[in-house]
Amino acid sequence: MNSFQILATILQGLTILLVAPFSVGLVRFTKARLQGRRGASPFLPYYTILTLLKKEMVISKSTSWVFRAVPFVVLASTIALAFILPLVFSGGALAFASDFLVVAAFMIVGSIFLVLGGLDSASAFGGMGSSREMTLASLIEPTVILIFGALAFVTGSFQLDGMFAQSLIFSAPHLIILMIAFVLVSLAENARYPVDNPATHLELTMVHEAMILEYSGRYLALLEYASAIKLAAFSILIANFVFPPVTIFSLSVGGGILAILLAILKVSMVAVLLGWLEMTIVKMRFYRMPEYLSLAFFTAFFGMMVAVYVKLTGPDIKYYTVFAAMSVFFVVLLFGRLRLKSILRYYAASSLMIAGIAYSLALMAPEEQTHLLIFAVVTIAVKVLLVPYVIKIMEKQQRHTANLQSFLRPASSYLLAALLLVFVFFIVQKTPIFALVEWSSLLFASVGLLVLGLATMIVHRNVFSQIIGLLVVENGIAIFTLVTVKSLPLIIEMGVFTVTALTALILSLLGSRIKYFYGSVDTEELRNLTE
Amino acid sequence: MYESLLTYFLVAGFLGLLVASILSLFKATFKSAAWFFVLANVLNFFAGVTYFLTATGYTFILVRFNSFFNFSPTLSGLSAIFLTVISLVSALVGVYSVRYLDLYQKTYNKYTTQFLMGLFVFGMQAVLLANNSFTFLFFWEVMSLSSFFLVLSDKTKESFNAAFLYFIMTHLGASAILGGFLILGNGSLFFDLSMIQEVTQQLTPTLATAAFCLFLFGFGSKAGLVPLHVWLPEAHPQAPSNISALMSGLMLKVAIYGFLMVVLNFAYMPTWAGTLVIILGLVSGVVGALYAAIETDMKKAFAYSSIENMGIIFSVIGLAIYITANYAHSNLMRYFIPLIVFAIIHSLSHAFFKTALFLSSGLVISRVHSRSLELMGGFAKSLPLFSFFFLLVIMGSLPIPPFGTFYGEWGLIHVAISLMSQAGGMLLPIVVLILSVIGLIGGLAVFAMIKIFAISMLGLPRYREHEIKSELGDGLLVWPIAGLALGVLSIGIFANYFISIISNVLNSSELITENAIGSISSMQLLSVVLGFLLFAYLLNYFFALNKKERSYHTWDCGQPINSTMEYTAAAFSAPIRFFFLNLIGRNKLITSEPVVVTNPWIRNYSFSLLISSAWKSSVYLPIEKFMNFLSLRVKLIQSGRIQYYLLLLLATLIVALSIAL
Amino acid sequence: MKFQKLVNFLLFKPSVTENYQSFASKNDEDVEIIGQEIKQIINDLYGGRSLRIRAVDGGSNNSEEIELTALNNAYYDIDRFGLSFVASPRHADMLFVTGPITRNLETAVRTTYEAAPKPCIVVAIGDGAIDGGIWQDSYAVVGGVDKVIPVHIKIPGDPPAPAAILRGVLEALKGKK
Predict the structure, then answer these.
(1) Long-range pairs of C23-28 with CB within 8 A, sequence gap ≥ 24
(2) Can you tell me the distance from the alpha carbon of C64 to that of C162, in angstroms, rounded to the nearest whole number?
(3) How far apart are CA A64 and CA A69, in angstroms?
(4) What is the DSSP string of C84-105?
(5) Which residue, B617, B612, B621, B622, is CA-closest to B585?
(6) Closest to B332 measured CA to CA, from B199, B431, B216
């Protein structure tokens, strides 16, 4: 550890500490602008903290020493993140402490002490916030371990410092799944939408705010500052997935300044994106959190499986593998959804990824190029646009099917999907066809889609979701044809597409008729018709 | 020089334990016997330390009694580790008991309790010295029976039920261990424990597998592995708190010791053994942590948390077994010893913090006179010093640096990921499974522990008749807890030294921590933690522009609030109950009846929430039914006529003779 | 795409928020600012650049509350002045008290004031809060807010329009009156 490293670490820490309130202010500013308001200046949080420092403290009579210890521990845990993580520079003096389990532990210590502070005031609001925060913090833990476990596995370094030494996304594009999982984790950790509403006044909907209701004056300043630092640190860390921090070896004074400017740019960028995200989504009900948490967990799990797969097959990762992984991923999302609109959206996204596979195969095989390109274009036309549109039109005639019935709750659906995929993963590896096929990742994807499509038809008890399950099965077969018989006559393929479109049309028409005659599309209720 | 010193310490310590327990039966010598018990344990602790000062890794034989069942007390590296910790923790529990038994003179007979405690601790430590299967099982029984009577101490109906369950389970386990030793010793009861390796090399795979399964069942049931765990959350909380501490903190470690002894020396293990142990461990971890999170009985929650920690330890050992069973001659074997070391590190931390947690629960319960968390609260104000140490212990029980528990899970996850990048095939799904479940276990454990601390210590007392007594008179209760907190902290701070000492003792030739899994300097980590705390404090110190403070009641929205409006333990864990509804047998009941018969609208509502153990109803009750059915059939033999029994006797004799001849 | 339309609208067309000047110039109400204490407070708190408000209902008929809610909307946008409503008096620098203080809510108003850390500005909003308004002689009513806690700013009206509330508070902050 030389003096240069120490200097870099101190510089990074101070940068984060100074820029932190700005990141919170910028999120609010962006949000206000997108709502058509003028909004407060992004520098307002500095004044808020200074104002709080000038006020006296009112301390509840029911509190003990724990209440007073809380702000310091919470602040210390977030400051530690600001100094330890590879944010502005990597390879700093404290890089040895950026082991991912240590970082996870620092994060959870902050949560623990906030919880203690919330309960020490003996108010029901504080207790409620504490209970919720503790639930979230403890159930997000497996996802954190999986994400960083997978990153450690890919990069071979247990320290975040080593993980973020290179651009993860550019060197291994499939890690984008892990990045999505990390964004989900960050939203939960920082108490943002859809987990918590940072601007709410309603105690019953609060998570983070409810715990600090009893704090005032400078303790409140410390706590708000701590959450600002956490937001800034996580923002930069998310950006670092794409643009890595500057390594301090081989660094000049100008480079250092540039690195700091880059960090500020990253914070601003992520803050603006966060403001935009918060504008477009709503807060989830707290009791829908199992869905969110299992989604985050599944995303991380899926990311890890893809990383393992890539490691098994070889170091050179192709774009069609990423597309194949994403097409399966979207179908899994579809699997847990109950609303027709989102099911159709994920179906379209999955089909788009299949078009992407065809496109990337076309780049690799010049002799098949036109053929594959036509395939891609027709896929987009039929499966991404036409089929969802047709089903939507048909469904629109019968209004009350917005929420479709399913045998499983979302959380268990994701679990089932994960189990099915793991099963497929190891079954396909054992089959003799694995060695024959050139592009094994596509084989996985096609069998995965087949199984998931079938499972959708089994688990969902609604005619419309079952139609989409059928279409997913068809997608799986489409990938299979891409892998095995590349040069299928064009006329047959076009026939398949026509059949697909017609299937969607006829089945949804039938479904719509059924709804019209019997008042329900729930297969459980339709079963009664036979008796 | 060291060897003679070691002999003196051991002889004095063990004789002292026996003498102390006998002296405690008499009124005149009771007080001194209690302190003598502490002294004897300290002597045994010195013995353990002396062992480490000598050249480590050898087997120290105290003396050979050829006449007395071939008993020659033997101290090997593994048993020395456990002896040191068990005697140190017992000494602290001894100090605690002096005051604790005084407080509970009316409930417990303090003479017999102290006597049985002495025997219990003697049994635990003597098991570690056993050199053959007979002495091992003899002291194992001393330990089991004395703890069985200790569970009965308060002579209530619940105690009888719990103790009965404990009695059955522990004897099923003991007979399984006996069976295992009989297989190894080829029918001989005096099987020399140092021969395990040689014997298993010659056994047929079927017999070795059978022996392994019997040992797993025996030690697993003592350690409370799911599905053999039902007795643990019943028996541990029912004993007096100092005994619960010994049972949960130390007796489970003896089970771990026994299992490690088998694992380290078994030459042949079936390929699926590792997977089985890992899955048992992970299931125990999840079940233990989940029930600990939703339990509202303080001691029961701690007992469930013991199951969780045992689960973690067994999954670490399971991974080690997997490696030896499948990759015995590859370079993956270099992860074997590290895994065992981390299992031991985790057991040692567990010995410290779980003992401290049960001792703390004893102090709290002595004020509330109930084990229910719903009646506690507000102790951080009346017992500030105690609550500080309690918080330290609670944090020590979680995977948080700089506490010892952190390094156990740290090691497991690091080894798992290193294995992942070096091995393919069937190891991958197991590692992925471990990684995805271990985080869940850790998270739920955090929830459970923080719930217990926050509900019992913070806020206002939920029950008005608390004894608001300061902790000044109870120094003997508080300081042992402080000592144990320091213990789990120092395991964390000196983790690197402990890891290297233990791996040296286990005859590991390589420096494992550096090479195989990367390293982390625990001391540096501590300084980082302290440094940032100081930094936060200074930030507040320099930037506080207004230092005025005013005291006022909690914000109440204009209407006065009282302690009945606080969040309760059941409410705090409601989200977890809801999220894991499928795994928990929950029975919610709302009943209402009208206050006046003529008016149906004004009603009295009562709400009850019952959490039943899913294991009990789906695993144990069918077994019980089956056994009942079987015993009814067997009962047909019981005709009640004496000639008939004599006939049976004759038949048995004939059958036995025909087999023998 | 909807989002693109939105961005276009935000970047190239005037936003929903009305300019402060458009309603600040009219001076038909007389906002009363009491005492020199408030100047001191505002100076202490960095000129009131960031103040947080806790609204307390002292027995109003909710007409004032509707106007206060309107302050948060895109047209008035109280955020741009650094003012925001918060959920706890512990966080508040400013109390908005509405309605004639009824006997039932007298304690609530007083405890809220006590619970808020000093320095804290108290604003009485509406005629009821200033002197009891049309309820002033009722047996169920204590009277104006100043009978219970010290008041710094009084904004008349029954109820005062959001613009009037904003004007009153901002003028007090600037110390113009």
Answers:
(1) C23/C163, C23/C166, C23/C167, C24/C167, C24/C170, C26/C163
(2) 9
(3) 9
(4) EE-S-GGG-SEEEEES-EETTT
(5) B612
(6) B431
Indicate if the pLDDT at residue A224 is higher than 90.
yes
CA A398 – CA A530 distance, rounded (Å): 23
Best mean pLDDT range from A495-499, B437-441, B516-520, B622-626: B437-441
Min distance B544 CA to chain C CA atoms (Å): 14
Phi, psi of B269 (to 5 degrees): -135, 140
Q: For chain C, say whether A409 makes contact (Cβ under 8 Å).
A: no
pLDDT tens-digit profile of B197-256? 888 888 888 888 999 999 999 999 999 998 888 889 889 999 999 999 999 999 999 999
Q: What is the ipTM of this complex?
A: 0.91
Q: What is the 3-state secondary structure (H, E, C) of B495-562?
A: HHHHHHHHHHHCCCCCCHHHHHHCCCCHHHHHHHHHHHHHHHHHHHHHHCCCCCEEEECCCCCCCCCC
Report residue A207 as tokens. Answer: 């998570």
Question: Does residue C118 belong to the interface with chain A, where contact is any CB pair within 8 Å?
Answer: yes
CA of A107 to nearest chain B CA: how many angstroms apart? 10
**Residue C74 contacts A, CB cutoff 8 Å:** yes
DSSP E strands in chain C: the ranges are: 32-33, 51-57, 83-85, 94-98, 101-102, 121-125, 141-143, 153-155
Instruction: Give the residue from chain B lying closest to C55, CA to CA.
Output: B557
What residues does each domain of chain C span? 26-176
Surface-to-core class of residue B476, CB atoms within 10 Å of its CB (0-12 exposed, 13-18 middle, 19+ buried): middle
Q: Exposed (0-12), middle (13-18) or buried (19+): which is A204, by Cβ within 10 Å?
A: exposed
B195 vs B265: CA distance, rounded Å: 9
Rounded to an integer, the average pLDDT of A377-381 is 88
Prior bond of A194 cis (ω within 30°) = yes
Whose CA is closest to B456, among B390, B405, B540, B397?
A: B390
Q: For residue B591, is pLDDT > 70? A: yes
**Mean residue pLDDT across chain B:** 87
Which of A32, A45, A206 shows the shortest C-beta gap to C79?
Answer: A32
pLDDT tens per residue, range A265-320: 999 999 999 998 998 888 888 888 888 998 999 999 989 988 888 877 766 667 78
- Which pLDDT score, from 0 to 100, does residue A139 have? 92
Q: Assess contact for A84 and A14: CB atoms under 8 A.
A: no
Q: Is the pLDDT of residue B514 over 50?
A: no
Q: State the Cα–Cα distance between residues B487 and B45, nearest whole angstrom.
A: 14
CATH T-level assignment (fold) for domain C26-176? Rossmann fold (3.40.50)
What was the pLDDT predicted at C27? 60
Query: Which of these, A218, A216, A269, lies nearest to A242 by C-alpha position?
Result: A269
Query: Chain C residues with CB inside 8 Å of A215's CB?
Result: 90
A·B CB contacts under 8 A:
253
Q: How confident is the model at residue A129 (pLDDT cuts 50, 70, 90)?
A: very high
Indicate if the pLDDT at residue A523 is higher than 50. Answer: yes
| Closest chain A residue to the Cα of C74, Cα to Cα | A37
Nearest CA in chain B to C108: B558
Full-model pTM: 0.90
A59 and B400 in contact by Cβ < 8 A?
no
B interface with C, Cβ–Cβ below 8 Å: 548, 550, 552-553, 555-559
For position C14, what pLDDT does the model report? 56
| Strand-strand pairing, C101-102 and C141-143 | antiparallel
User: Residue A35 and residue C119: Cβ atoms within 8 Å?
Assistant: no
Q: What is the pLDDT of residues A182-215, one digit of tens each?
A: 999 999 999 998 899 888 888 888 889 999 999 9
Residue A418 C-alpha from the chain's centroid: 16
Which of C51, C79, C113, C173 to mutate to test binding with chain A, by most A CBs within 10 Å of its CB? C79
Q: What residue ranges do the domains of chain A occupy?
A: 3-308, 318-525
